[in-house]
Amino acid sequence: MTISIALLNIIITVLILGSVTLAMFVIAKFNLVQGTPETKKLLETKENLAPLKAICSLAIGGVVYAFFVAWTHFSPGGWIGLVLAVLGIILVGDRIRRKRFPDPKAKSKRKIKEKNVASWDPDETKPWCWHCQEHTRPNGKNGCSNCRGSYYRMNVPIGDRKAGYGCAGCAVVPLVIVLCVSLFGVSRDVLIGLWALSGFWFLIVVGFPIVFLYRYRTWMKWARRRQQYPYGTDPEDLEEEEPPPPVVDKRDGFLSDEEL
Question: Which domain holds residue 20?
Answer without folding.
Answer: 1-102
